[in-house]
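Subject: design request, 489 residues
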Protein backbone atom coordinates (compact mmCIF):
# COMPACT_ATOMS: atom_id res chain seq x y z
CA UNK A 1 0.00 0.00 0.00
CA UNK A 2 1.25 3.48 -0.86
CA UNK A 3 0.30 6.99 0.14
CA UNK A 4 0.93 8.59 -3.26
CA UNK A 5 -2.04 10.42 -4.75
CA UNK A 6 -0.74 11.56 -8.16
CA UNK A 7 2.04 10.80 -10.61
CA UNK A 8 3.11 12.69 -13.74
CA UNK A 9 3.90 10.43 -16.71
CA UNK A 10 4.78 10.67 -20.40
CA UNK A 11 2.66 8.75 -22.90
CA UNK A 12 4.55 7.72 -26.03
CA UNK A 13 3.13 8.32 -29.51
CA UNK A 14 4.70 7.94 -32.98
CA UNK A 15 5.07 11.73 -33.10
CA UNK A 16 5.77 13.17 -29.64
CA UNK A 17 5.10 12.55 -25.95
CA UNK A 18 1.74 13.28 -24.33
CA UNK A 19 1.93 14.73 -20.82
CA UNK A 20 -0.45 13.13 -18.31
CA UNK A 21 -1.21 12.99 -14.59
CA UNK A 22 -2.38 9.78 -12.92
CA UNK A 23 -4.68 10.12 -9.90
CA UNK A 24 -4.75 7.21 -7.43
CA UNK A 25 -7.61 6.15 -5.13
CA UNK A 26 -7.25 6.37 -1.34
CA UNK A 27 -5.25 3.47 0.07
CA UNK A 28 -3.88 2.62 -3.38
CA UNK A 29 -2.21 -0.82 -3.48
CA UNK A 30 0.06 -1.54 -6.48
CA UNK A 31 -0.46 -5.28 -6.05
CA UNK A 32 -4.17 -4.93 -6.85
CA UNK A 33 -5.96 -4.14 -10.09
CA UNK A 34 -8.26 -1.15 -10.49
CA UNK A 35 -10.70 0.04 -13.12
CA UNK A 36 -9.29 3.06 -14.93
CA UNK A 37 -10.82 6.18 -16.44
CA UNK A 38 -9.30 8.48 -19.04
CA UNK A 39 -10.38 12.07 -18.40
CA UNK A 40 -10.36 14.38 -21.44
CA UNK A 41 -10.24 18.15 -21.11
CA UNK A 42 -12.32 20.74 -23.00
CA UNK A 43 -11.20 22.65 -26.08
CA UNK A 44 -8.26 24.90 -25.19
CA UNK A 45 -8.00 23.58 -21.64
CA UNK A 46 -5.35 21.44 -19.91
CA UNK A 47 -5.04 18.46 -17.58
CA UNK A 48 -4.75 20.66 -14.46
CA UNK A 49 -8.24 22.08 -14.92
CA UNK A 50 -11.62 20.29 -15.12
CA UNK A 51 -10.36 16.94 -16.42
CA UNK A 52 -7.72 16.54 -13.70
CA UNK A 53 -8.10 18.71 -10.63
CA UNK A 54 -11.89 18.42 -10.63
CA UNK A 55 -13.12 15.18 -12.22
CA UNK A 56 -9.81 13.34 -11.88
CA UNK A 57 -9.74 13.94 -8.14
CA UNK A 58 -13.43 13.10 -7.66
CA UNK A 59 -13.22 9.83 -9.61
CA UNK A 60 -10.04 8.76 -7.82
CA UNK A 61 -11.80 9.36 -4.50
CA UNK A 62 -14.53 7.02 -5.78
CA UNK A 63 -11.98 4.20 -6.24
CA UNK A 64 -10.75 4.58 -9.82
CA UNK A 65 -7.29 5.07 -11.26
CA UNK A 66 -7.70 8.20 -13.40
CA UNK A 67 -5.39 9.55 -16.09
CA UNK A 68 -5.88 13.14 -17.27
CA UNK A 69 -3.77 14.20 -20.24
CA UNK A 70 -2.94 17.28 -22.27
CA UNK A 71 -4.10 16.98 -25.86
CA UNK A 72 -1.48 16.91 -28.60
CA UNK A 73 -0.31 20.43 -29.54
CA UNK A 74 -1.53 21.76 -26.19
CA UNK A 75 -0.43 22.14 -22.56
CA UNK A 76 2.74 20.22 -21.71
CA UNK A 77 2.27 17.72 -24.56
CA UNK A 78 4.30 17.85 -27.76
CA UNK A 79 3.23 18.83 -31.23
CA UNK A 80 3.70 21.80 -33.53
CA UNK A 81 2.21 24.23 -34.35
CA UNK A 82 1.01 25.03 -30.86
CA UNK A 83 -2.65 25.65 -29.98
CA UNK A 84 -3.83 23.37 -32.81
CA UNK A 85 -7.28 21.91 -32.12
CA UNK A 86 -7.25 18.86 -34.40
CA UNK A 87 -10.23 16.52 -33.79
CA UNK A 88 -8.63 13.56 -35.54
CA UNK A 89 -5.46 13.84 -33.47
CA UNK A 90 -7.40 14.35 -30.27
CA UNK A 91 -9.31 11.13 -30.96
CA UNK A 92 -6.07 9.27 -31.66
CA UNK A 93 -4.65 10.53 -28.36
CA UNK A 94 -7.10 8.26 -26.52
CA UNK A 95 -5.63 5.12 -28.10
CA UNK A 96 -2.12 6.15 -27.10
CA UNK A 97 -3.29 6.74 -23.53
CA UNK A 98 -4.97 3.31 -23.53
CA UNK A 99 -1.67 1.85 -24.78
CA UNK A 100 -0.02 3.32 -21.69
CA UNK A 101 -2.70 2.12 -19.28
CA UNK A 102 -2.59 -1.51 -20.44
CA UNK A 103 1.12 -1.64 -19.55
CA UNK A 104 0.43 -0.75 -15.91
CA UNK A 105 0.09 -3.86 -13.72
CA UNK A 106 -2.39 -2.18 -11.38
CA UNK A 107 -4.86 -1.35 -14.19
CA UNK A 108 -7.51 -3.89 -15.19
CA UNK A 109 -7.27 -3.75 -19.00
CA UNK A 110 -10.84 -5.02 -19.32
CA UNK A 111 -12.23 -2.13 -17.27
CA UNK A 112 -11.07 1.05 -19.00
CA UNK A 113 -13.51 3.87 -19.59
CA UNK A 114 -13.36 7.48 -20.73
CA UNK A 115 -14.94 10.67 -19.47
CA UNK A 116 -14.88 13.79 -21.61
CA UNK A 117 -15.83 17.33 -20.67
CA UNK A 118 -17.21 19.77 -23.24
CA UNK A 119 -15.19 19.24 -26.45
CA UNK A 120 -13.50 16.31 -24.71
CA UNK A 121 -16.94 14.71 -24.48
CA UNK A 122 -17.35 14.69 -28.24
CA UNK A 123 -13.84 13.33 -28.70
CA UNK A 124 -14.50 10.62 -26.09
CA UNK A 125 -17.58 9.40 -27.95
CA UNK A 126 -15.73 9.43 -31.27
CA UNK A 127 -12.80 7.47 -29.82
CA UNK A 128 -15.08 4.82 -28.31
CA UNK A 129 -16.63 4.14 -31.72
CA UNK A 130 -13.47 2.42 -32.95
CA UNK A 131 -11.28 1.81 -29.89
CA UNK A 132 -12.79 -1.40 -28.53
CA UNK A 133 -10.52 -1.45 -25.50
CA UNK A 134 -12.68 1.39 -24.16
CA UNK A 135 -15.54 -0.38 -22.38
CA UNK A 136 -17.67 2.60 -21.38
CA UNK A 137 -17.77 6.28 -22.27
CA UNK A 138 -19.33 9.22 -20.49
CA UNK A 139 -19.51 12.90 -21.34
CA UNK A 140 -20.27 16.05 -19.37
CA UNK A 141 -21.86 18.78 -21.50
CA UNK A 142 -20.37 16.98 -24.51
CA UNK A 143 -19.72 19.17 -27.54
CA UNK A 144 -19.42 18.00 -31.14
CA UNK A 145 -16.55 20.22 -32.31
CA UNK A 146 -17.37 19.80 -36.00
CA UNK A 147 -20.93 20.94 -35.36
CA UNK A 148 -19.69 23.83 -33.21
CA UNK A 149 -17.40 25.02 -35.99
CA UNK A 150 -20.26 25.14 -38.48
CA UNK A 151 -22.38 27.19 -36.11
CA UNK A 152 -21.08 29.38 -33.26
CA UNK A 153 -17.38 29.36 -34.19
CA UNK A 154 -18.17 30.49 -37.73
CA UNK A 155 -20.91 32.96 -36.90
CA UNK A 156 -23.24 30.59 -38.76
CA UNK A 157 -21.36 31.29 -42.00
CA UNK A 158 -19.08 28.24 -42.40
CA UNK A 159 -18.28 28.85 -46.07
CA UNK A 160 -16.91 32.35 -45.52
CA UNK A 161 -15.06 31.16 -42.43
CA UNK A 162 -13.34 28.35 -44.32
CA UNK A 163 -12.33 30.85 -46.99
CA UNK A 164 -10.78 32.98 -44.24
CA UNK A 165 -9.00 29.94 -42.79
CA UNK A 166 -7.63 29.14 -46.25
CA UNK A 167 -6.38 32.70 -46.62
CA UNK A 168 -4.70 32.61 -43.22
CA UNK A 169 -2.99 29.26 -43.87
CA UNK A 170 -1.74 30.57 -47.22
CA UNK A 171 -0.29 33.61 -45.46
CA UNK A 172 1.44 31.42 -42.86
CA UNK A 173 2.82 29.10 -45.55
CA UNK A 174 4.50 32.20 -46.97
CA UNK A 175 5.98 33.26 -43.65
CA UNK A 176 3.26 35.29 -41.91
CA UNK A 177 2.83 35.13 -38.14
CA UNK A 178 0.24 32.61 -36.88
CA UNK A 179 -3.18 33.98 -35.98
CA UNK A 180 -4.05 32.57 -32.55
CA UNK A 181 -7.54 33.39 -31.31
CA UNK A 182 -8.65 33.75 -27.70
CA UNK A 183 -11.70 31.58 -27.08
CA UNK A 184 -12.83 33.51 -24.00
CA UNK A 185 -12.89 37.15 -22.90
CA UNK A 186 -9.96 38.11 -20.63
CA UNK A 187 -12.13 38.93 -17.60
CA UNK A 188 -15.59 38.27 -16.21
CA UNK A 189 -16.49 41.94 -16.71
CA UNK A 190 -15.52 41.69 -20.37
CA UNK A 191 -17.76 38.63 -20.70
CA UNK A 192 -20.84 40.52 -19.52
CA UNK A 193 -23.61 40.35 -22.09
CA UNK A 194 -22.10 37.44 -24.03
CA UNK A 195 -24.33 34.73 -22.59
CA UNK A 196 -24.43 32.60 -19.45
CA UNK A 197 -22.16 29.85 -20.78
CA UNK A 198 -19.38 32.27 -21.69
CA UNK A 199 -19.72 34.21 -18.42
CA UNK A 200 -19.50 31.06 -16.29
CA UNK A 201 -16.64 29.65 -18.36
CA UNK A 202 -14.72 32.91 -18.00
CA UNK A 203 -15.41 32.92 -14.27
CA UNK A 204 -13.62 29.56 -14.05
CA UNK A 205 -10.90 29.59 -16.70
CA UNK A 206 -9.89 33.25 -16.32
CA UNK A 207 -9.95 33.59 -12.52
CA UNK A 208 -7.99 31.95 -9.67
CA UNK A 209 -10.78 29.33 -9.44
CA UNK A 210 -9.43 27.46 -12.43
CA UNK A 211 -6.82 29.49 -14.28
CA UNK A 212 -3.64 27.51 -14.98
CA UNK A 213 -0.49 28.37 -16.98
CA UNK A 214 -1.21 25.70 -19.61
CA UNK A 215 -4.92 26.41 -19.83
CA UNK A 216 -4.48 28.81 -22.71
CA UNK A 217 -8.09 28.75 -24.00
CA UNK A 218 -6.59 29.70 -27.36
CA UNK A 219 -6.88 28.22 -30.84
CA UNK A 220 -4.76 28.44 -34.00
CA UNK A 221 -7.14 29.54 -36.75
CA UNK A 222 -5.16 28.25 -39.73
CA UNK A 223 -5.44 24.62 -38.53
CA UNK A 224 -9.18 24.56 -37.91
CA UNK A 225 -10.16 23.47 -41.42
CA UNK A 226 -9.93 19.74 -40.67
CA UNK A 227 -12.57 20.13 -37.97
CA UNK A 228 -15.17 21.16 -40.53
CA UNK A 229 -15.03 17.67 -42.01
CA UNK A 230 -15.25 15.92 -38.63
CA UNK A 231 -18.32 14.75 -36.73
CA UNK A 232 -18.34 13.01 -33.35
CA UNK A 233 -21.23 10.72 -34.24
CA UNK A 234 -20.37 9.57 -37.78
CA UNK A 235 -20.72 5.76 -37.97
CA UNK A 236 -21.86 5.64 -34.33
CA UNK A 237 -24.13 2.74 -35.31
CA UNK A 238 -21.05 0.52 -35.33
CA UNK A 239 -20.72 0.97 -31.56
CA UNK A 240 -22.96 -0.53 -28.90
CA UNK A 241 -25.26 2.23 -27.62
CA UNK A 242 -25.15 0.75 -24.12
CA UNK A 243 -21.54 1.86 -23.84
CA UNK A 244 -22.31 5.58 -23.91
CA UNK A 245 -23.56 7.74 -21.03
CA UNK A 246 -24.00 11.49 -21.52
CA UNK A 247 -24.90 14.15 -19.00
CA UNK A 248 -26.05 17.72 -19.41
CA UNK A 249 -25.20 18.41 -15.78
CA UNK A 250 -22.04 20.37 -15.14
CA UNK A 251 -21.41 19.63 -11.47
CA UNK A 252 -18.89 20.14 -9.97
CA UNK A 253 -18.00 22.86 -12.48
CA UNK A 254 -19.59 24.15 -15.64
CA UNK A 255 -17.43 23.59 -18.72
CA UNK A 256 -17.46 25.50 -21.99
CA UNK A 257 -20.20 24.07 -24.23
CA UNK A 258 -20.25 26.84 -26.81
CA UNK A 259 -18.13 29.91 -27.28
CA UNK A 260 -18.88 32.49 -29.93
CA UNK A 261 -15.59 33.52 -31.49
CA UNK A 262 -14.84 36.13 -34.11
CA UNK A 263 -13.52 34.91 -37.42
CA UNK A 264 -10.01 35.39 -38.72
CA UNK A 265 -9.25 38.83 -40.05
CA UNK A 266 -7.42 37.30 -42.98
CA UNK A 267 -9.12 38.29 -46.20
CA UNK A 268 -10.73 35.27 -47.87
CA UNK A 269 -9.33 34.43 -51.25
CA UNK A 270 -11.94 34.42 -54.03
CA UNK A 271 -12.96 31.02 -55.36
CA UNK A 272 -12.12 30.43 -58.98
CA UNK A 273 -13.88 28.23 -61.43
CA UNK A 274 -12.04 25.64 -63.47
CA UNK A 275 -12.28 28.01 -66.43
CA UNK A 276 -9.45 30.05 -64.89
CA UNK A 277 -7.06 27.11 -65.11
CA UNK A 278 -4.60 27.06 -68.02
CA UNK A 279 -5.94 25.67 -71.27
CA UNK A 280 -3.96 22.69 -72.42
CA UNK A 281 -2.99 22.47 -76.05
CA UNK A 282 -4.74 19.12 -76.13
CA UNK A 283 -7.03 17.22 -73.82
CA UNK A 284 -5.66 14.19 -72.02
CA UNK A 285 -8.07 11.60 -70.69
CA UNK A 286 -6.63 9.22 -68.12
CA UNK A 287 -8.30 5.85 -68.00
CA UNK A 288 -7.78 2.93 -65.68
CA UNK A 289 -7.21 -0.72 -66.23
CA UNK A 290 -10.26 -2.89 -65.45
CA UNK A 291 -9.13 -3.84 -61.96
CA UNK A 292 -11.47 -4.15 -59.01
CA UNK A 293 -11.97 -1.12 -56.81
CA UNK A 294 -9.53 -1.31 -53.92
CA UNK A 295 -6.53 -2.42 -55.95
CA UNK A 296 -3.85 -0.19 -57.40
CA UNK A 297 -5.04 1.47 -60.59
CA UNK A 298 -2.69 2.36 -63.43
CA UNK A 299 -3.07 4.99 -66.14
CA UNK A 300 -3.13 3.80 -69.72
CA UNK A 301 0.06 4.54 -71.65
CA UNK A 302 1.41 7.28 -69.37
CA UNK A 303 4.27 9.42 -70.58
CA UNK A 304 7.64 9.23 -68.86
CA UNK A 305 10.02 12.10 -68.20
CA UNK A 306 13.67 12.78 -67.62
CA UNK A 307 14.73 13.16 -64.01
CA UNK A 308 17.51 15.07 -62.36
CA UNK A 309 19.74 13.30 -59.87
CA UNK A 310 19.90 16.24 -57.49
CA UNK A 311 17.81 16.81 -54.37
CA UNK A 312 16.69 20.40 -53.96
CA UNK A 313 14.14 22.67 -52.36
CA UNK A 314 14.61 25.33 -55.04
CA UNK A 315 13.78 24.69 -58.68
CA UNK A 316 15.05 27.19 -61.19
CA UNK A 317 16.63 25.26 -64.02
CA UNK A 318 14.72 25.48 -67.27
CA UNK A 319 15.90 22.06 -68.39
CA UNK A 320 14.86 20.33 -65.15
CA UNK A 321 11.79 18.09 -65.46
CA UNK A 322 11.73 16.51 -62.01
CA UNK A 323 13.30 17.46 -58.70
CA UNK A 324 13.46 15.35 -55.55
CA UNK A 325 12.31 17.51 -52.66
CA UNK A 326 11.38 17.30 -48.99
CA UNK A 327 8.82 19.29 -47.04
CA UNK A 328 7.55 19.23 -43.44
CA UNK A 329 4.28 17.85 -42.13
CA UNK A 330 4.49 18.60 -38.42
CA UNK A 331 7.35 16.47 -37.04
CA UNK A 332 7.48 14.28 -40.15
CA UNK A 333 9.70 15.01 -43.14
CA UNK A 334 7.88 14.20 -46.36
CA UNK A 335 9.70 12.97 -49.47
CA UNK A 336 8.36 14.09 -52.83
CA UNK A 337 9.08 14.45 -56.52
CA UNK A 338 8.26 17.81 -58.07
CA UNK A 339 7.54 17.71 -61.80
CA UNK A 340 7.99 20.92 -63.79
CA UNK A 341 6.61 21.74 -67.24
CA UNK A 342 8.81 21.73 -70.31
CA UNK A 343 10.51 25.08 -70.86
CA UNK A 344 9.91 25.89 -67.22
CA UNK A 345 10.31 29.58 -66.39
CA UNK A 346 10.79 30.38 -62.67
CA UNK A 347 9.53 33.92 -63.30
CA UNK A 348 6.18 32.65 -64.57
CA UNK A 349 3.15 31.64 -62.49
CA UNK A 350 1.84 28.10 -62.89
CA UNK A 351 -1.22 26.17 -61.81
CA UNK A 352 -0.24 23.20 -59.63
CA UNK A 353 -1.55 19.72 -58.88
CA UNK A 354 -0.90 17.45 -55.89
CA UNK A 355 -1.10 13.77 -56.87
CA UNK A 356 -1.93 11.31 -54.08
CA UNK A 357 -0.90 7.67 -54.31
CA UNK A 358 -3.06 4.62 -53.43
CA UNK A 359 -2.93 2.81 -50.11
CA UNK A 360 0.43 1.06 -49.94
CA UNK A 361 1.71 2.86 -53.03
CA UNK A 362 4.67 5.19 -53.41
CA UNK A 363 5.36 8.38 -55.33
CA UNK A 364 7.26 6.54 -58.08
CA UNK A 365 4.16 4.55 -59.06
CA UNK A 366 0.75 5.84 -60.19
CA UNK A 367 1.02 9.20 -58.41
CA UNK A 368 4.30 9.89 -60.18
CA UNK A 369 2.95 8.75 -63.54
CA UNK A 370 0.00 11.12 -63.30
CA UNK A 371 2.24 13.93 -62.02
CA UNK A 372 4.51 13.51 -65.04
CA UNK A 373 1.49 13.63 -67.33
CA UNK A 374 0.17 16.77 -65.63
CA UNK A 375 3.57 18.45 -66.02
CA UNK A 376 3.47 17.58 -69.71
CA UNK A 377 0.16 19.47 -69.87
CA UNK A 378 1.67 22.60 -68.34
CA UNK A 379 1.15 22.13 -64.60
CA UNK A 380 3.62 22.03 -61.74
CA UNK A 381 2.85 18.65 -60.16
CA UNK A 382 3.90 17.18 -56.81
CA UNK A 383 3.88 13.46 -56.04
CA UNK A 384 4.94 12.43 -52.54
CA UNK A 385 5.20 9.43 -50.25
CA UNK A 386 2.54 9.41 -47.53
CA UNK A 387 3.53 9.79 -43.89
CA UNK A 388 4.86 6.49 -42.50
CA UNK A 389 5.42 5.15 -46.02
CA UNK A 390 8.05 5.11 -48.76
CA UNK A 391 10.88 7.56 -48.16
CA UNK A 392 8.81 9.82 -45.90
CA UNK A 393 9.31 9.81 -42.16
CA UNK A 394 7.09 8.48 -39.40
CA UNK A 395 7.12 5.39 -37.19
CA UNK A 396 5.82 2.74 -37.15
CA UNK A 397 6.45 2.45 -40.87
CA UNK A 398 3.86 1.04 -43.30
CA UNK A 399 1.08 2.67 -41.25
CA UNK A 400 -2.01 3.59 -43.29
CA UNK A 401 -3.54 6.42 -41.26
CA UNK A 402 -6.47 8.13 -43.06
CA UNK A 403 -6.26 11.20 -40.83
CA UNK A 404 -2.53 11.65 -41.38
CA UNK A 405 -2.98 11.09 -45.10
CA UNK A 406 -5.52 13.90 -45.37
CA UNK A 407 -3.13 16.16 -43.47
CA UNK A 408 -0.37 15.10 -45.90
CA UNK A 409 -2.41 16.69 -48.68
CA UNK A 410 -2.71 19.94 -46.74
CA UNK A 411 1.04 19.94 -46.02
CA UNK A 412 1.71 19.41 -49.74
CA UNK A 413 -0.44 22.47 -50.48
CA UNK A 414 1.58 24.41 -47.87
CA UNK A 415 4.74 23.48 -49.75
CA UNK A 416 3.38 24.45 -53.16
CA UNK A 417 2.18 27.79 -51.84
CA UNK A 418 5.69 28.54 -50.60
CA UNK A 419 7.03 28.36 -54.17
CA UNK A 420 7.19 31.70 -55.93
CA UNK A 421 6.26 30.26 -59.31
CA UNK A 422 3.06 28.53 -58.13
CA UNK A 423 -0.23 30.44 -58.38
CA UNK A 424 -1.73 29.88 -54.92
CA UNK A 425 -5.21 30.39 -56.35
CA UNK A 426 -4.83 27.52 -58.83
CA UNK A 427 -3.92 24.44 -56.81
CA UNK A 428 -5.80 21.19 -57.31
CA UNK A 429 -5.53 17.60 -56.11
CA UNK A 430 -5.67 14.32 -58.04
CA UNK A 431 -6.01 11.11 -56.04
CA UNK A 432 -5.68 7.52 -57.23
CA UNK A 433 -7.58 4.64 -55.58
CA UNK A 434 -7.51 5.25 -51.79
CA UNK A 435 -5.63 8.46 -52.57
CA UNK A 436 -8.84 9.60 -54.26
CA UNK A 437 -10.75 9.25 -51.01
CA UNK A 438 -8.06 11.16 -49.13
CA UNK A 439 -8.04 13.88 -51.81
CA UNK A 440 -11.80 14.36 -51.50
CA UNK A 441 -11.58 14.42 -47.70
CA UNK A 442 -8.88 17.11 -47.74
CA UNK A 443 -10.71 19.22 -50.33
CA UNK A 444 -13.94 19.17 -48.31
CA UNK A 445 -12.40 21.43 -45.69
CA UNK A 446 -9.29 23.03 -47.21
CA UNK A 447 -10.54 25.82 -49.43
CA UNK A 448 -7.08 26.47 -50.80
CA UNK A 449 -7.76 23.39 -52.95
CA UNK A 450 -9.68 24.79 -55.91
CA UNK A 451 -10.29 21.55 -57.80
CA UNK A 452 -10.23 17.85 -56.99
CA UNK A 453 -10.40 14.79 -59.22
CA UNK A 454 -10.10 11.07 -58.59
CA UNK A 455 -9.16 7.92 -60.47
CA UNK A 456 -10.88 4.73 -59.26
CA UNK A 457 -11.44 6.40 -55.89
CA UNK A 458 -11.80 4.19 -52.81
CA UNK A 459 -13.25 5.14 -49.42
CA UNK A 460 -10.80 3.30 -47.18
CA UNK A 461 -13.11 3.50 -44.15
CA UNK A 462 -15.97 1.85 -46.02
CA UNK A 463 -13.58 -0.78 -47.35
CA UNK A 464 -12.53 -1.75 -43.84
CA UNK A 465 -16.10 -1.82 -42.54
CA UNK A 466 -17.46 -3.88 -45.44
CA UNK A 467 -14.41 -5.95 -46.21
CA UNK A 468 -11.87 -5.15 -48.90
CA UNK A 469 -13.98 -6.71 -51.61
CA UNK A 470 -17.36 -5.99 -50.06
CA UNK A 471 -18.16 -9.47 -48.77
CA UNK A 472 -19.44 -10.39 -45.31
CA UNK A 473 -16.80 -13.09 -44.92
CA UNK A 474 -14.03 -10.64 -45.78
CA UNK A 475 -15.36 -8.09 -43.28
CA UNK A 476 -15.51 -10.79 -40.60
CA UNK A 477 -11.92 -11.76 -41.43
CA UNK A 478 -10.77 -8.17 -40.85
CA UNK A 479 -12.60 -7.84 -37.54
CA UNK A 480 -11.42 -11.21 -36.19
CA UNK A 481 -7.80 -10.46 -37.04
CA UNK A 482 -7.95 -6.96 -35.62
CA UNK A 483 -9.44 -8.31 -32.39
CA UNK A 484 -6.81 -11.05 -32.16
CA UNK A 485 -4.02 -8.55 -32.81
CA UNK A 486 -5.31 -6.15 -30.13
CA UNK A 487 -5.58 -8.98 -27.60
CA UNK A 488 -2.10 -10.28 -28.40
CA UNK A 489 -0.54 -6.84 -28.07
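Subject: RE: design request

Done. Sequence follows.
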Amino acid sequence: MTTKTTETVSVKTPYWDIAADIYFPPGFDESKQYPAIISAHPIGSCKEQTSGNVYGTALADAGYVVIAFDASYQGASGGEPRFTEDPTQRVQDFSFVVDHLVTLPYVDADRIGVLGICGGGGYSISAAKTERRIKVVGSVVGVNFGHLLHEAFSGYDPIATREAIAGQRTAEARGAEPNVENLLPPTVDAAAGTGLDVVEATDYYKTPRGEKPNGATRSLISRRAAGYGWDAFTHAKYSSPSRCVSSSETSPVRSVPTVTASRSTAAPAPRRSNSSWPKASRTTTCTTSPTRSGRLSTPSSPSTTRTSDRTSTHHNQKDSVMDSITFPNGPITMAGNLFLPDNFDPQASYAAVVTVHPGGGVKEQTAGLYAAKMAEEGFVALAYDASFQGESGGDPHHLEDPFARAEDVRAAVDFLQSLGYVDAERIGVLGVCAGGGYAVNAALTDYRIKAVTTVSAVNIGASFRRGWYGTDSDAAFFRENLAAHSEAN
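The chain has two domains: 6-247, 274-458.
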